Amino acid sequence: MTDIETADIVTTVSGGTGHIELNRPAALNALTTDMVHAIDAALQAWESDDAVTRVLITSASPKAYCAGGDIRAIRDQVVAGEDFTPFFRDEYEMNLRLAEFPKPVIALIDGVNMGGGVGVSIHGSHRVVSEKALIAMPEVAIGFLPDVGATYLLARLPQGVGELMGMTAARLGAGDALAVGLGTHFVPSSAMPNVEAALLAGEDLDGVLARFGDTAPASTLPLDEIADVFGRDSVTEILAGLATSSGAWADTAREQLSTACPTSVFVTFGLIQQARERTLAQCLAEEAVVGARMIRRPDFVEGIRAVLVDKTRDPKFSPAAMGDVEDAEIEAILGS
């Protein structure tokens, strides 16, 4: 196959390994439409190519695997009254293709991995994390919702963990990611280049991961406490339980919720509950519909302004308090 190269995605084939390198380090590999198309084109080409036995996805950034979608560009489209839906449609198609890929897909997560980056990694068969890995779905901070199939993933984590991640934008390190199943293997950051080189040289995948793997950092998640609080049946019950919980995890959750978009918190909870009865394809379809409704609300433009444009982190969401969110509004947003 002819190698494909764009400014932000570099694809090659070596040692039976189709290699996708995310190469937009200045933007922490935030995904653009062109990047989504390039990744999808490579997956389509390699799916039926017998010379490619596996896919490896890595990052050229020393800081991040992928910080998410280029959400500022989406905001610009919304403000300009342009159609923002093609990006999400194409991104979700790529996410589903990666999840259903018939060959091993190995992501080397050696840094920040959030939002859209989760969609280009966690759906794969091998999610290799280093001590620098930091996995999160922070969309509630900008008036949006966990997408790229994240509602499906979050709904299948240990009780309460998906709600904690989706509703509070909790960040999981390597030990936590492995403990809840988001990560599958641990390799120290210093050995990640060795893993990449060995796979591109055609070495056996399991052997490579065993050779360079090491003991992972311990998880700090108190899973029983999280299940007790975030495993409850409603947002109101969760907030009541969190109010009386102690520990660093609860302090962080309360702090994160204090700046989260209240409507996003309720919508995210609802989607995670529904996702337990849905396939990944159904979750992606629902995220597209509900996500478009959220993007059209003023909270989205305001959230991007506060977090990514002005970086004041003082969003003025409406409603501004969890207690002011109306059931009818959430039902309308979630309604099919």
CATH architecture: Alpha-Beta Complex
Percent of residues in β-strands:
5-15%
Question: What Rg do the Cα atoms give?
Answer: 19 Å
Supply the helix-strand structural class: alpha/beta
Strand order of the largest sheet: 1-2-3-4-6-8-10
CATH class: Alpha Beta
The number of helices is 16
Give structural notes.
It is a single chain. This protein is of the alpha/beta class and 336 residues long. It has a single domain, classed as 2-enoyl-CoA Hydratase, Chain A, domain 1 (Alpha-Beta Complex). Helices cover 47% and strands 12% of the residues. It has 16 helices and 10 strands. Strand 1 (4-5) and strand 2 form a beta hairpin. The longest helix has 16 residues, at 280-295. The termini are far apart. 49% of the residues are buried. Residues 1-5 have low confidence and may be disordered.
